[in-house]
Design brief:
This protein has an eight-stranded mixed beta sheet, with helices on both faces. The chain has a single domain, classed as 3-Layer(aba) Sandwich (Rossmann fold), CATH 3.40.50.300. It is globular. The chain is an alpha/beta fold and 261 residues long. α1 crosses α12 and α7 crosses α8.
Length: 261
């Protein structure tokens, strides 16, 4: 039965590639589904999509096929063994990296058709500050920024937050700190969040003319089971359900669940 209210849209983004954004999105979606939330992941890395690959899924179509009218969304959506639905994207398609008026119009129309069927829609957005990345962040209800404690990751995250704040008046950001200190992951995450908030408050808020909030939603420690899960094309719950990251993913899902209609 369709929801009375549309699904909450979460854009999972990162300024820098290689921070574990896609793995986190996939496992977060699985945790939301386990909690009974009807969840759709839209692979929004339209030029270099790989969500279906890391989960070992056989995708017959893609979001590009839907937008071009070659398939319906029902034909392209993959119902995963993990309980959530995936709308995959093609890879190596240069034209998909360009934000065109047709892309924005058709994407919004597609989302309006889909969102009454779900509680949560997660955009697995590409890294960087390209127009397609900014588009998905702008149309989301919540922006989830994935960072690591590395200085380059923090600087790139700040650059992304700065552009979204100045150009699109984004004021609130969720933060997920990945590859945190495994001996003290919560403390490591709080330090990273406080550092980023300090930089934002000092250098950005005056330009924006308003408060910009960085809220820590979760800290995930460095964990060798993540690499094993990726190599096996499995979720963390399938590979090592009691591992450090797998045991913390449900907490992250609970944090996001509080924002759902």
């Amino acid at each position: 039965m369709p929801n009375e209210k549309p699904a909450r849209r979460f854009a999972v983004i990162s300024g820098k590639g290689g921070v574990g954004k896609t793995v986190i999105t996939a496992n977060l979606a699985a945790a939301l589904a386990t909690c009974g939330k009807r969840t759709l992941v839209l692979d929004a890395d339209l030029g270099l999509a790989n969500m279906d690959i890391i989960l070992g899924l056989n995708a017959e179509g893609s979001i590009q096929d839907v937008l071009a009218g070659r398939m319906t969304e029902e034909e392209a959506i993959v119902h995963t063994r993990l309980g959530f639905d995936l709308l995959p994207a093609g890879s190596g398609l240069l034209e998909s990296t360009l934000l065109t008026p047709d892309l924005t119009t058709n994407m919004e129309s597609l989302l309006q058709r889909l969102e009454s069927r779900y509680d949560a829609i997660l955009f697995d957005v590409g890294a960087g500050i390209g127009d397609v990345v900014l588009f998905f962040a702008r149309i989301a209800d919540e922006v989830v920024v994935v960072v690591t404690p590395e200085p380059t990751s923090l600087m790139d995250a700040y650059a992304l937050i700065k552009i979204l704040s100045l150009r699109f008046a984004c004021r609130n950001f969720r933060l997920v700190v990945n590859q945190a200190d495994p001996s003290h992951p919560e403390h490591s995450g709080m330090v990273v969040a406080a550092r980023l908030q300090q930089v934002v408050s000092r250098f950005l808020e005056e330009s924006v003319g308003a408060q910009v909030s960085i809220r820590l939603s979760g800290s995930l420690p460095t964990d060798p089971s993540v690499a094993r899960a990726v190599s096996r094309q499995q979720s963390l719950a399938e590979t090592d359900p009691t591992g450090p990251v797998a045991s913390r993913i449900p907490r992250l899902a609970e944090s996001l669940s509080r924002a759902l209609p």
